[in-house]
Amino acid sequence: MPAGFQAFNSGGVLQIDENYVNLGLIATGQVTPSAATPDGYISAFRMAELAVTGVAPIIAVRANYAVALGDVRQSGNTWTFRLCVNTTLDWDGTALTYYIFDQVPAVAHGIGLQVFRGDGVCTFDSNYKYFNPVGVFMLAGGQPLTLTDYSDYTGLPMGTYAVVLSMERMGTHYAVSEFAITCGDGLRALPNGVRMRWTQINVNAVGGEGGNDLFVDQRPRQAVLIDVSNI
Fold first, then answer.
1. Across the 231 residues of the chain, what is the mean pLDDT of every consecutive 10-residue run?
2. What is the β-pairing status of strands 114-116 and 35-36?
3. HEC assignment per residue over the chain
4. Would you list the domain boundaries of the chain?
5. 162: which strand partners?
6. Contact between residue 18 and residue 114 where contact means Cβ atoms under 8 Å apart
7. If we measure between CA atoms, which residue out of 169, 120, 153, 123 comes closest to residue 17?
8. CA–CA separation, 79 and 37 (whole Å)
9. 89 and 65 in contact (C-beta within 8 Å)?
10. Omega cis (within 30) before 2
């Protein structure tokens, strides 16, 4: 007869299901985005790269400044994340904290709980810390209108949060110095929400004088905050 396993919390929310792979913390640490970017055109544009082994990892960060996901590269089961900052804005030179979540590998241990799917994939292991989303914010399309401005979205209870980074939309700033600066959603977790600021992720030389104009993506996007107070 069919069999399975499910666990619910006191609010009736499904926490564990043998058919649902929980996202477990596979890596965390601190890094300072201080490396020059490959293009090298603008010194204020800095980055850090992180490589992890996984199935389909996602990354969240907690920092005192906006961070944008400039690139994600996959080679086999190795994933490399490029984290970008603009040092002329709110960057204070401190390290950011990153949290990488993925399908957890089954690790033999003598105490705890492990749940497996029918095909043998481990869907839950009590020895891991897990992805805990607490808020989803809809970020307005076309905002903010300048590289030096930002938009805050608040409403969560005061807490310790990190924001998930993804490559969802872009903007282009045509600078007066003949550069076309590609910008991404730079996100910063606040104590009660998230701050969005366009952040440089790539720079290309273009012919002619630019008009110092910023063309931004008009599509809205979502920002997911997770609770990292127990990580």
1. 64 71 90 77 79 94 93 93 86 94 79 78 81 91 76 95 81 57 83 88 56 67 92 89
2. unpaired
3. CCCCCEEECCCCCEEEECCECCEEEEEEEEECCCEECCCCCCCCEEEEEEEEECCCCEEEEECCCCEEEEEEEEECCEEEEEEEEECCCCCCCCCEEEEEEEECCCCCCCCCCEEECCCCCEEEECCCCECCEEEEEEECCCCCCCCCCCEEEECCCCCCEEEEECCCCEEEEECCCCEEEEEEEEEEEECCEEEEEEEEEEEEECCCCCCCEEEECCCCEEEEEEECCCC
4. 6-125, 133-227
5. 226
6. no
7. 123
8. 18
9. yes
10. no
Torsion of CA 228, 78, 65, 224, to 10 degrees: -50
Question: Position 54: which residue type?
Answer: G
Query: What is d(CA 25, CA 67) in angstroms, rounded to the nearest whole number?
Result: 20
